[in-house]
Amino acid sequence: MTTNTTAAASGDFSLGGDLRVNRLGFGAMRIAFGPFDGPPRDPATGVAVLRRAIELGVNYVDTAAFYELGEASANRVIREALYPYEENLVIATKVGPLRGPDGLPSGHAAPDRLRGLVEENLDVLGLDRLDLVYLRIGDLTAPAGESLAERFTALAALREEGLIRHLGVSNVNAAQFAEARSIAPVAAVQNHFHVHHAGDADVLRQCVELGIAYVPYFPLGGGDRPVDRERLEKVAARHGATSTQVALAWLLATAPVMLAIPGTGDPEHLEENVAAAGLTLTGEDVAELTGGGR
To answer: CA angle, corner 99, sides to 148 and 176, nearest 5?
Structure first.
């Protein structure tokens, strides 16, 4: 499916009640590298991809300072491409994970280190205040029984200082989500979720009820939960679309609080992703995609 569709076709959402964004955004990790162990990507290509994303109506960019490999840094590319930033551009970042000696995220910051991580994002991005900061906890699987209270309290204090506008949580279960909300307002949740890994229904339901954004990572499959490509391709064929576009359209149709943030370092893939904002799935499509696959 190739059209002149822009991200505005995905509809919009008021993030935190005061930041209106198009529901199809951009995940920045892959403008620096593919997998975490590389190789790094050409920053000039990343600059071109980001500028084209803005032209296509994307106004929500999700990044992190730990999206970095050698000289390749997502935050540096974002600043080079987009600074000075358009007034309606929302930049979200994540803090918590620390890189180990091998360059891979392998540890987590204690509460007293979070200020430094927030200030690093501010400095490299060239901002006085971060629109949205997620506290990312755990590894690739949602941790059970781990308290986030001390770390989220530390971020809440930085919000009170004015360094952060809104707070989010990432990779959390329902109990951790509730714990965070008892400390400070939560504007967004970023958990692992896609068309064939939709086991986070309880947290998503709460986000819908509370008007909190739900922003899935690995929206096109990833980690140990791949998508069923064959099932996606069957639906895609009916629409003259790609399997990627169908997966994104399914996310956008799932809940009004859903923000999709596919990432890419390839200009053609960017065009493909944004065009998904104009794809409408039928009830038959949804039944075929999800039947027996959750």
So the answer is: 15
Residue 14's closest CA among 1, 23, 2? 23
* 178-192 pLDDT tens trace: 999 999 999 999 999
| HEC-encoded secondary structure of 3-64 | CCCCHHHHCEEEECCCEEEECECEECHHHCECCCCCCECCHHHHHHHHHHHHHCCCCEEECC
- Phi, psi angles (nearest 5°) of residue 156: -60, -35
CB 167 within 8 A of CB 156: yes
> At 141, is the pLDDT very low, low, confident or very high (cuts 50, 70, 90)?
low
Query: Which numeric CATH code is attached to 7-290?
Result: 3.20.20.100
Taking the C-alpha atoms of residue 135 and residue 15, their distance in angstroms, rounded to an integer, is 16
Q: What is the mean pLDDT of residues 254-281?
A: 96
Angle between helices 243-254 and 267-275 (to 10 degrees): 40
Domain regions of the chain by residue span:
7-290
Q: How far is CA 74 from the centre of its chain?
A: 13
Report DSSP state, residue 83.
P
Shortest CA distance to 109 belongs to which of 124, 96, 95? 96
Name the pairing type of β-strands 72-73 and 68-69.
antiparallel
Q: Which of 67, 134, 214, 217 is catalytic?
A: 67
- What confidence tens digit (pLDDT) does each residue in 8-53 have? 999 999 999 999 999 999 999 999 988 777 788 999 999 999 999 9
The predicted model gives 124-147 an average pLDDT of 88
pLDDT for 105 equals 73
- Residue 67 annotated in active site: yes
